[in-house]
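Example record used in the benchmark description.
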Amino acid sequence: MPERAAAATLLLLLLAAPGRPGEAPAADPGPSAARRAELVHLLRHDCGSCHGLTMNGGLGPPLLPATLAPKDREALVVTVLEGRPGTPMPPWKHELAEAEARYLVDLLVEGRVP
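Model output (structure tokens):
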């Protein structure tokens, strides 16, 4: 009887777990459409106030696909979240989730800023 209880518990755990055994976890869908619109506004206005409204640079360096291409995307996400000590680049980790910072980096690197 204890084996039956253990098997039932294991079955419940497997059924409650996301996905199936051996299956890769589902990809993060990223920010909602409404949040993406807010993030684009933040990119244009907050980031643009230092990096230029067209991202061609200003107080901060340009954020164009050509200037970002050689950089590691994960490092760019960390820069957005943690800022750059000793520079005017502030940390945004109190305003943005990691997935949101990644969404912004992807827009910039891929030249998809609406």
